[in-house]
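Q: Hi! First time doing this. I have a protein sequence and I read that you can turn it into a structure. Is that right? Here it is:
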Amino acid sequence: MKLYFELLFTVFLSFNIFAQQSWIRVNQLGYNTGTVKQAVFVTKAGDKPINFELIDVLSDKVVYSSSAISEYGQYACFDNVYRLDFTDLNKTGTYYLRCDETKSVNFKIGTNVYKGAADFLLKYMRQQRCGYNPYLKDSCHTHDGFIVDHPTLDSTHIDVTGGWHDASDYLQYLTTSANATYQMLFAYQQNPGAFGDEYDASGLPGKNGIPDILDEAKWGLDWLVKMNPEYGVMFNQIADDRDHMKFTLPTLDSVDYGKGKAGERPVYLVTGKRQGLAKYKNRTTGVSSSAAKFASAFSLGADLLKNYYPQFAEKVMTKAREAYKYALSDIGTCQTACNKSPYFYEEDNYTDDLELAASQLFNSTKDEYYNTEAVYWGDLEPVTPWMGADSARHYQWYPFVNLGHFNIAKTGNPKFLEFMKRGLTALKKRADNGFLFGVPFIWCSNNLVAAALTQCRLYNELTGSNEFVEMETALRDWLFGVNPWGTCMIVGFPQEDADTPTDPHSALTAAFNMPIDGGLVDGPVYTSIFNRLKGLTLYNGDEYAEFQSDLVVYHDDYGDYSTNEPTMDGTASLTYYLSAMEKTPNNNNYSYSNGGIIRGDKTQKTIYLTFTGDEYSDGGEVIRNLLDEQSIKANFFFTGNFYRNNTELVKSLVANGHYLGAHSDKHLLYCTWEDRDSLLVTKDKFVTDLKANYSEMARCEITKSNAGYFLPPYEWYNNKISKWTSELGLQLVNFTPGTGTNADYTIPSMGERYRTSEYLYTKLMGYETQHTLNGHILIMHIGTHPERTDKFYNKLTDIITNLKTKGYKFEIMDF
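A: Yes, that's right. Below is the predicted 3D structure, encoded as structure tokens:
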């Protein structure tokens, strides 16, 4: 028995000795080229590492090595935290970090890492819609509601159906909804090119000629109009904490507010007085904070929607002026109402709301009265109080960012730039740890992160100063995995291979297994807060147990409503920053299909003459010599098979300055011809095959750094293939449809599918006459089956000569 326990102890000791003690935290979405790039090495044991390396995933080769390691000491559960700086590396690609024997997960460096990120957040906003819900394709809360706290109209019905559910419950607040509306409008105003049009006004798939973020903001504005039916009549919320009954779908909500199950819900009038229908009441002191939120959203909405909804824009502009006037009639803060519990949004400040409303009205009207008002109110709160604070009550200082300061600073008022700087300086002073994180871990800490990021970016854009760029980088990276838990904070984003919330506090997910992609979760809280909250239970274990500490906790568990519940306003507040990060170097005149570039700039008379090859190479010398004679460069995409069997030809093409790229190793068919969304390869097979392709290219001295485009075999692919390509740091390209030159592989035995060279030439020139070939990726094959004796590449002289006379130039790809 003694021997048994000795052996058991030895096994236990060995397990602990070899258990992982160090981790590398990276931004799992990736890093834009030209920006600060840092990771964090955390350890529970061991000495300071001497250096670190970046390894290219495609080649498995070290591409960067550095000793730029900064030590910060103990933090949270870690004995030591180190920052690794690889800002100097700007080569696009997919990499992993290695420090000592510790490896990071794979991550990207690229020019469009954040492309589509802001639009992704709108998935959650559409899911949160009340009234008609496009995610559920059903309607909810269509009986809302009955008025409460009105001196003469108590229990009277009023139609306020619409808007968004606040979080995973189904309450609706003017406080958060008006802010969310303004934040989305602001995001579009500042970065209109970042937003697409894939959904209609009802939130269903289908373009309607209006950017999706404006559709979503209009949904909010329509509800705000209902909540402010006339001057001096405003409503602050629908329902109360009696809502918290059980996890169910909004369409199945059966809470009884005294009007029967699933009946009308109470609609709270903005009274300027303390409210609460039962034991607990808020501390409301006036109407200013709510009325001013109406005013700012209405004013900016009028500006941005006038080209789409001119009559609506005129209406809400009038309401903006009226709302600001009403905000001055009873100065003070209007808080949300509670009922059976003491929890509510404890907003204490209102001067920031008045400043934003006045500054936005000045932007809209150019009436100097509003500018004077804005400066007056802005002077009263130079810094949003949470910045630099250790703690705060729930939503005590809301909104968490004062965009009024930005509006005034943009007019040239230097004092408000200084106000912005003071807030960021206070935050930076707190960020004295290895994560450079100074945000207090109060409830909804991620909302504070979004606010701080917004102020950092706006300050940088106004001043050009990089004083806060490193802190901004750290805050951004925190949301995407550079945190003690190594997890991202947006549900379902990045979509593949990243650690993202999978068990959020939401009925849709927990009870009905419905994904709620796009929602920004609350974020970590002080352990002291977590320990005193009521009704918290972890139902599915704690996968981050080894990273919890006496300082702070985060749980990906639906039982933790304090850290893992997505919020509508936090999500909306992040749309500005992610849209600002979306670099779009690709010309807007390019054309895309299933994630691949299929045409260059349509305004330029440029053709990208392109040849693919796998099994046959009979036209290689003819094409090479002709291109040399014509003094033009072309693009060649070959399989690994081709590179293996035609090394001398390939090297001569490289020497002549042509572009050579990848076409898969074994010329795989990625998806069925009948259904391109039906994959025939796994991701592992795709990656392994493509790595073999690049390995053969390396033998011919072609590296990924000068071969970043990939043309799929058979010119057939889908969005998933494009995504996998992008994750490897490559850009998928394909031929421009219409000319038919890609049919030069056909042979007579194909019958009606066979295309003669004369037919292809005539169709090409006819297409050019009718449509132009501007930006075309014009594909031919470098070799074809011996049965095809009518080789299309023999028409190349006529093609080039004819197109040159029409003013076209031939170039290698540089999208």
